[in-house]
Amino acid sequence: MKKRLIELIFQRAFKYSEEPTFRLVSGRMSNYYFNCKAVTLHPEGMYLIGNLIFDMINGLNIKGIGGLTLGADPVAYAVSYTSYLKGRPVEAFVVRKSAKSHGTMQWIEGDVRAGDRVVIVDDVITTGKSTIEAITRAKEAGLEIARVISLIDRQEGGRENIEALGYGLEALVLRDEVMELYPFPH
């Protein structure tokens, strides 16, 4: 499954240019880009992601899985759906980019409460900023973070920034594993 996921990422999500033409969220320019939605919203991508991450968290007594909207959402949904099919349901939750401005004024949407064990997910990690924001909001809500998992680690310092907070990062796919499929000398 992992091999097929890497192929799907390379075929559908990976973009490369000899010149740094891709603007990242950080504002920095890069010569490669991962448009993860092309995989996380794809039926086979959902199937692979849901199964691979479910296998990573199965048996850990996890109540919820989620992260900062929008990148984390399809990842969490795929795992939640897979968990139900496998008879071990895990709730999906969403961490908003800003608190809800009406009603309950919540940062987190979903059926998770203080004390629940959760997994924070993200589609791609570069600096780790969005993942760290999700970790911060989850901790403020009293959630116990059991794991931090990303679909892709761009290997540009995000892992180290997350580890500096005391959490390990597990990535399904590393940038280097995708770059191995690109036909240029590395």
Task: Please give a structural write-up.
Helix content is 36%, strand content 25%. With 186 residues, the chain is of the alpha/beta class. Strands 7-6-5-8-9-10 form a 6-stranded mixed β-sheet, with helices on both faces. It has a two-stranded antiparallel ribbon with strand order 1-4. It has a two-stranded antiparallel sheet with strand order 2-3.
List keywords for this structure.
alpha/beta, single chain, about 190 residues, six-stranded mixed beta sheet, Rossmann fold, about 25% strand, 10 strands
Topology diagram in text:
Elements: H1 2-13, E1 14-16, E2 22-23, E3 29-30, E4 32-34, H2 37-40, H3 43-57, E5 64-68, H4 73-85, E6 91-95, E7 108-109, E8 117-125, H5 129-140, E9 144-153, H6 158-163, E10 170-174, H7 175-179
Parallel strand pairs: 5-6, 5-8, 8-9, 9-10
Antiparallel strand pairs: 1-4, 2-3, 6-7
Strand content: 15-25%
Number of strands: 10
Class based on secondary structure composition and strand pairing: alpha/beta
What is the typical, i.e. mean, pLDDT? 94
**Poorly predicted regions:** none
Biggest sheet: strands, sense, closure? 6 strands, mixed
The CATH architecture of the domain at 46-173 can be given as 3-Layer(aba) Sandwich
How are the strands of the largest sheet arranged? 7-6-5-8-9-10
Assign an overall shape. globular
Number of helices: 7
| Percentage of residues assigned to helices | 25-40%
Name the CATH class of the domain at 46-173.
Alpha Beta
What's the end-to-end separation, in Å? 25 Å
Rg for CA atoms: 16 Å
Which fold name corresponds to the CATH topology of the domain at 46-173? Rossmann fold
Following the backbone from N to C, one meets helices and strands in this order, namely: HEEEEHHEHEEEHEHEH
